[in-house]
Design brief:
heterodimer; A: alpha/beta; eight-stranded mixed sheet; eight-stranded parallel sheet; 13 helices; B: alpha/beta; five-stranded parallel sheet; four-stranded parallel sheet; 37% helix; globular
């Protein structure tokens, strides 16, 4: 099967290329060129980019099928141009056994949509006490190990987990949040939480935990990817850690570069997120650090929640927001606000997460997997339950007008989505 | 940000959810209306027919005696039918969701829901889902707001001090967990009180409380100096010993209101407390029962204020 995508504005962040041209696809890979195509897509007026790579998308299987199914969320992924996604282990049961990982991968593969990269549980049942069989989980297809949002029983377990992972060269993806300081909290500890009478999570719940993590990286030299930074203080610590040469990287969720605690308004449960939305100053620091490169990439942190989980008083509402289909428009919005060119903007959801995930996707170089998103960066749309394919309609952006619509998504040379 | 969900398109009070964001005119309207009802409560026939044929549902997801009773009395004096539901021991324990409970009661033709809930913001959620002719009155939600208590506190202050524009008001105690404090602070700043102080240990002060327009004192004596109004907050039993405070005795030593400490306030200062009081924890009996105390009149005024709120929302 030979596919020609012609006349598009080809943007390849990995090489910095941004020019009108053609992209050739043969046998599931990007090709230099060929004489005759079996199929041609005219991308005139559209952007042709590597498919997006999302480092955190909850597909809710197994265990939470009433919130979303693999099928609904894989449809959402390709509708959002996401061709590779890593899914956190906080399913029910958690991804702590090779059989579960194997089943998830096979179910995902049979749907023939996006590539799914399971992240294994770092501890049994995510209870934070006993290590999982990381070797076997890696053999089953886990690309990294994580606690998702669950805490460690104590710092000794964290230390041992990092030592063990470092021994075998496994990556660990960890949140930085002190569970005791965060205990009972539902919003950023500041004047908004005070006005709304919501128990707070101080910013130092993040920086104290990050300090612990960085010190343990120094001691163990384990490779650690810090997930979902939320505070300006954590940004400065990451800047220093990278300057020092520690083997660390980090990401931020799409909501955190656009929203802050003021957006809670009158108890908007769609803004109930973990970590909490923090102050305007934190939001601005995160958005700038993502531009500077201190923060490596953006992720959707896609977490579909059903209405029953959100139609509750703020503190009782389930955490999370749907995000796969908003990843592109919110990334474009961020890039435009920072006055970045399109290649630099898209790098945060293509080449940069590809590097962290260790995949050959995320670029348009010849020989790379032909994972491609073709989109109209200007096309406006109103976020609503009707325009979202995800089963989760929960987003703080509901009712907002955003720009950027995916027209065609290609995975391994096959068209998996067409608008 | 969306429109203040308490107000209808004409800017009138549709629901009473929080004092925050209400214009001075509406607060004054409520206090003036309460003034006119204060007379009713002293008459031999203590009833007016303003809410005749209307149903008031008291929806208490959290236990309360005083607030529920005063709402009930207020509704009855307005000639409404009152239905008391103690949800804490019925639907909620059977697993029914908050919105299902409200939808069911709404199907029974409610006009006013008086809601108390342990979660901050619960009345906002209910107000977003009720029918256009239904009204929600917040009777206390989590740590967030207790607007009718705030209004009766404002009524009491106005009754004794007439004018807010020169007042120093000191609010003492567990501000962190207090919806009463938050509502009163918003009311006082809206009505132009120039100096609102909060007094308590750091463990009982919420983050960034200064942004509400108050001055923070940790030394009670400094905070009480020349105060016109002293409002004591209740300290919940479960908070008297633990990570927030070492003991009730030590708390009383630093933050309990005694005659000695009260002497630092103005000679004509009034002492308020939303009740129920912990004598010997936040307030000494000599003060609670002394000449400066207006704690019992607060309860009486509470009925007139709740009559005013119900009659105003029902009329809009």
């Amino acid at each position: 099967m030979k596919l020609l995508i012609k006349n598009g504005r080809v943007v390849d962040p990995a090489s910095g290329k941004d020019a009108v041209g053609d992209v050739y696809v043969a046998d599931g890979k990007i090709a230099e060129s060929f004489a005759k195509a079996d199929k041609t897509i005219d991308a005139k007026g559209l952007v042709v980019s590597p498919g997006f790579i999302d480092l955190s998308a909850r597909l809710r299987e197994p265990g939470f099928e009433y919130k979303a199914t693999l099928e609904s969320e894989m449809n959402a992924a390709v509708a959002g141009g996401v061709t590779s996604l890593a899914c956190p282990p906080d399913t029910d049961p958690p991804l702590d056994e090779p059989g579960l990982v194997d089943m998830l991968r096979r179910r995902a593969k049979s749907l023939e949509r996006a590539r799914v990269y399971p992240i294994g549980a770092l501890t049994v049942k995510l209870e934070g006490s006993a290590l999982t069989e990381m070797g076997q989980l890696a053999d089953a297809g886990c690309v990294a190990f994580s606690q998702a949002n669950a805490p460690f029983a104590d710092t000794q377990v964290l230390w041992r987990a990092l030592q063990y992972a470092a021994t075998f060269g496994f990556s660990t993806w960890l949140r930085a949040q002190d569970p005791w300081l965060a205990k009972g909290g539902v919003a950023h500890d500041g004047d908004v939480a005070t006005r709304l009478g919501l128990p707070g999570i101080p910013a130092f719940a993040e920086t104290i935990a990050l300090g612990t993590l960085l010190e343990l990286v120094r001691a163990t030299r384990a490779r650690v990817h810090i997930c979902r930074l939320s505070s300006a203080g954590a940004v400065e610590m990451m800047r220093a850690a990278k300057k020092e040469g520690l083997p660390v990287s980090c990401d931020v969720g799409i909501h955190y570069v656009h929203l802050c605690d003021r957006d809670l308004g009158y108890f908007d449960a769609n803004c109930r997120l973990d970590p909490p939305l923090r102050s305007q100053r934190d939001r601005d620091a995160l958005a700038q650090a993502l531009a500077d490169g201190v923060i490596d990439c953006l992720c959707s942190d896609h977490t579909p929640v059903d209405d029953d989980g959100k139609h509750l008083p703020f503190a009782e509402a389930e955490v999370g927001a749907t995000g796969l289909e908003l990843l592109l428009p919110l990334t474009l919005k961020w890039g435009a606000a920072r006055k970045l060119n399109l290649a630099a903007t898209l790098a945060r959801i293509t080449s940069e997460p590809a590097r962290i995930l260790g995949t050959a996707s995320g670029k348009l170089a010849a020989g790379a997997p032909a994972d491609i998103a073709i989109f109209d960066p200007q096309a406006p749309f109103r976020v609503s339950a009707e325009t979202l394919k995800s089963q989760g309609k929960n987003t703080p952006f509901v009712g907002h007008e955003l720009q950027g619509r995916v027209r065609t998504t290609i995975v391994a040379g096959n068209v998996v989505y067409e608008a | 940000m969306q429109r203040n969900p308490q107000l209808n398109e004409n800017g009138e009070l549709q629901h009473l959810l929080s004092i925050e964001g209400l214009p001075r005119e509406i607060l004054t309207q409520i206090l003036d209306t309460a003034e006119s009802f204060a007379g009713v409560t002293e008459r031999e026939v203590k009833k007016v027919p303003l809410l005749r044929g209307k149903s008031v549902f008291n929806l208490f997801f959290e236990a309360s005696t005083r607030t529920r009773t005063t709402f009930e009395i207020a509704a009855k004096r307005l000639s409404a039918d009152v239905i008391n539901l103690n949800i804490a021991v019925s639907s909620a324990t059977k697993g029914e969701s908050l919105l299902d409970t409200v939808a069911n009661l709404s199907a029974m033709q409610a006009d006013i829901f008086v809601v108390r809930h342990a979660s901050s913001g619960a009345p906002f959620l209910i107000a977003r889902h009720v029918k256009p002719h239904e009204h929600v009155i917040n009777a206390g939600d989590g740590r967030h707001a207790h607007p009718t208590q705030g209004l009766l506190d404002l009524f009491t202050i106005r009754h004794y001090k007439k004018d807010f524009s020169k007042l120093t008001v000191a609010i003492v105690g567990d501000v962190l967990h207090s919806r009463v404090a938050r509502s009163l602070i918003h009311g006082l700043t809206t009505l132009g009180a120039p100096e609102v102080r909060v007094i308590g240990p750091q463990t009982l002060m919420p983050a960034g409380v200064e942004a509400l327009g108050v001055r923070v004192f940790h030394d009670m004596k400094a905070g009480l100096k020349d105060a016109d109004v002293v409002v004591m907050l209740r300290l919940q039993n479960e908070r008297m010993r633990g990570a927030l405070l070492p003991s009730a005795q030590e708390y009383f030593k630093h933050y309990g209101l005694t005659l000695d400490k009260l002497a630092l306030a103005r000679k004509d200062a009034i002492v308020m407390h939303p009740g129920p009081m912990n004598r010997g924890v936040e307030i000494d009996s000599n003060v609670a029962d002394g000449p400066h105390s207006v704690i019992l009149p607060q309860v009486t005024f509470g009925i007139a204020v709740r009559m005013a709120v119900m009659s105003i929302v029902a009329g809009n």
